[in-house]
Amino acid sequence: MKSALSRRGFLAGAFRSRPESIRPPWAVEEALFLDLCARCDDCIRLCPEKIVNRGSGGFPVIQFQRGECTFCGDCLTACKEGALRKESVDQAPWNLIAVIGAGCLPHKGVVCHSCREACEPRAITLRLAPMGVGMPEIGGDCTGCGACVQVCPARSIDILKPAPEPISPRRPEAVSLAAGV
């Protein structure tokens, strides 16, 4: 995940950069977001999935451990300050993607399809591996909604930002990081 040393962090004496927080969908660029967000908690109160929570400094962050983002737009509608802004009808809510880590149970020979069952049909696919265990792979249809995060019994899925260039299932990069390919 991209790390950045913010002005606020610098002034607070946090000289080590930390991973950037994942903001609600349609958030403007981070520096502008920090300037515009009034920390009013409207987006937190109105999130039906309860995944928008208070983060560092009272700014809203997404916590996928609580559930997935359905992109309902309630947080966008609630934001009167312009920190969440949809410029066009077809604008993607964010540029995030799921990444499967080394703790994934199929990488240890255990059959598990929890992530695939929670996600959209082509967001996570299974590649048949030796001994019949299906290895999950993030596909090009991953929206970064986080549905796979909460259901993973091994807690080995993260949502990263910004997402790398679009992933094609035919490219070797489409294989999860833990597969070692």
- Helix/sheet category: alpha+beta
Low-pLDDT windows of residues? 166-181
Q: Mind summarizing the main beta sheet?
A: 2 strands, antiparallel
Count up the helices: 6
Quick one: how many beta strands? Answer: 8
For the biggest β-sheet, the strand order reads: 1-2
Percent helix range: 10-25%
Give the helices and strands as they follow along the chain.
Answer: EHEHHEEHEHEEHE
Strand content: 15-25%
Compute the CA-based radius of gyration: 17 Å
- Average predicted local confidence, pLDDT: 84
- Shape, per Cα inertia axes: elongated
Instruction: Give the N-to-C terminal Cα separation.
Output: 20 Å
Quickly list its features.
two-stranded antiparallel sheet, alpha+beta, single chain, two-stranded antiparallel ribbon, disordered C terminus, 181 residues
Provide an overview of this structure.
- It is a single chain.
- The chain is of the alpha+beta class and 181 residues long.
- Helices cover 18% and strands 15% of the residues.
- It has 6 helices and 8 strands.
- A hairpin with a 5-residue loop joins strand 6 (124-128) and strand 7.
- The chain starts with a strand and ends in a 21-residue tail after the last strand.
